[in-house]
Design a protein that fits this description.
By secondary structure, this protein is α+β, with helices and mostly antiparallel strands. The chain folds into 2 domains: about 230 residues, Beta-Lactamase (2-Layer Sandwich), CATH 3.30.450.40; about 150 residues, Arc Repressor Mutant, subunit A (Orthogonal Bundle). Helix content is about 50%, strand content about 10%. It has 18 helices and 11 strands. The strands form 3 sheets. It has a 5-stranded antiparallel β-sheet, sandwiched between helices. Strand 6 and strand 7 form a beta hairpin. The protein is globular, with a radius of gyration of 24 Å. The two termini are about 30 Å apart.
């Protein structure tokens, strides 16, 4: 069945137009040999994989993903999946996606998968035989394709990086996915947040540039439809719709979730400490002004599937803290503005004010939280801030970053910092000494990593 998805035969080592697939397959297969050997052989990976794939493999290793992982029955299924899919922001876009992508892909013998912003598959479309073959390698509705769960794959890379990607054959971290090629592109909402992933899967034909271009074009069309929907909704609100229905006693709230301290809520000038769970819920609702169904909120809070009763109880307790008029239900959504330090940090980054962003960044978002939705926000902010710091090449900004917990052991940041300082300055020698310490430490860490699989 797997070979059926790949087009009826295992992939051959040959060159496709514009893509050196034969060499890519051979090198990736060799890399898997080193991966299986473990130990010092892991140092050979860098010369065999595309940089994007290498970085993903290393993250997969650190996450403890087993390359020989077999298909499990974990995932969202049945009525729970149907409710989650129907309530998702991409649901209204399916007629458009079907017209632009699904119909042509199915006729060509390819499979189209639609996933949410966390990599959970919402739907799989195509010829029934090919859909069944896709299910055998793990492309099933309700399954989690995130990188932390199954390692390197196209949808997981899009979720991780926010950029379109394709993964061919043995570039996949899991052996059970070696006979397929996938191309995926992100779908963003009008505020620029990732809301879903479009992916085409099949044989070597999927590696052709025109396939990825088609997926990206469909994702762009979906994004434009979301913009038009938001504009229409805005006009309805201005005419006395949902915005006019907000209670007159509504108050603005402030939420602080950055750093190691206890989360804080500001209500009418008074600061109120929040539990981690209550802070998680408030932040997630602030990040999703369109609202979250109980199933969706449960997935964002815990990927082991919280039941709806637990969610209702947590929201009820939070209402006793913030007041009964702050939330609406079905879906859960905020009825009052909530200003978060996360939004303030994003605004500073959007304006290019890196110095202000560093001042606002008291530390990671809810650092003790393991909720998938919070982890994604935390990773997004840290990556955006670090990228802005390195791109600034400003010695003052770099000094502040490398003196903090996030940048203290950031070898790349120290290297950029060194380049921003005059070689004759005493500071240059101090930075050089720090880089040498990091080099020795990273060498020791690499040796420990190489024990994987031994």
């Amino acid at each position: 069945m797997v070979s059926n998805l790949a087009g009826g035969r295992p992939p051959r080592h040959r060159v496709e137009p514009g893509t050196q697939l034969g060499a890519l397959e051979a090198y990736a297969a060799q890399a898997h040999g080193y991966l299986s050997a473990g130990g010092e052989q892991l140092s050979q990976l860098a010369g065999l994989l595309r940089p994007l794939v290498l970085d993903s493999w290393l993250r997969s290793l650190r996450s403890g993903v087993d390359p020989m992982d077999v298909l499990s029955e974990r995932g969202l299924r049945g009525a729970d999946l149907q409710r989650y899919r129907d309530a998702h922001a991409l649901a209204p876009l399916m007629p458009l996606i079907d017209k632009l992508l699904v119909q042509d892909a199915a006729r060509a013998g390819l499979v189209v998968a639609l996933a949410d912003q966390f990599g959970r598959v919402l739907s799989v479309y195509g010829n029934p035989d090919r859909v069944a073959a896709a299910a055998e390698v793990g492309l099933r509705a309700g399954d989690d394709l995130s990188e932390r769960r199954i390692g390197t794959n196209a949808a997981g890379l899009v979720v991780r990086t926010g950029r379109a990607a394709w993964i061919h054959g043995p570039e996949h971290f899991l052996h059970r996915m070696h006979q397929i090629t996938c191309a995926a592109a992100p779908v963003h909402d009008p505020d620029g947040r990732l809301v879903g992933v479009l992916m085409v899967a099949g044989g070597v034909r999927v590696a052709r540039p025109e396939i990825l271009a088609l997926v990206k074009a469909t994702a762009t069309a979906a994004e434009m439809e979301l913009v038009l929907t938001a504009m229409r909704s805005g006009r309805a609100d201005a005419g006395g719709g949902q915005a006019a229905s907000r209670p007159a006693e509504a108050r603005s709230l402030g939420l602080e979730v950055l750093g190691q301290g206890q989360p804080q809520l500001t209500i009418a000038g008074d600061r109120v400490p929040l539990s981690q769970r209550h802070a998680e819920i408030l932040l997630l609702l602030a990040e999703h002004p369109e609202g979250l169904g109980a199933d969706h909120l449960a997935l964002l809070l815990d990927d082991t599937d919280l039941d709806n009763g637990t969610i209702r109880a947590a929201v009820s307790r939070l209402r006793s803290v913030v007041g009964p008029t702050v939330f609406g239900s079905r879906p859960y959504r905020l009825r009052v503005p909530v200003a978060t330090d996360v939004d303030a940090l994003r605004a500073a980054l959007d304006s290019g004010d890196v110095e202000s962003a560093l001042r606002l960044y008291a530390g990671p978002v809810l650092p003790r939280s393991t909720a998938p939705g919070i982890v994604d926000i935390r990773d997004e902010l840290r990556v955006r801030l670090r990228t802005a710091v390195l791109a600034s090449r400003d010695s003052g900004v770099l000094r502040r970053w490398t003196s903090g917990a996030e940048g203290r052991d950031d070898a790349a940041a120290w290297a950029v910092y060194r380049a921003s300082v005059d070689r004759d300055s005493p500071l240059y020698a101090q930075i050089e000494a720090k880089i040498r310490v990091l080099d020795r430490r990273l060498g020791a860490d690499a040796t420990r990593m190489q024990r994987f699989g031994s």
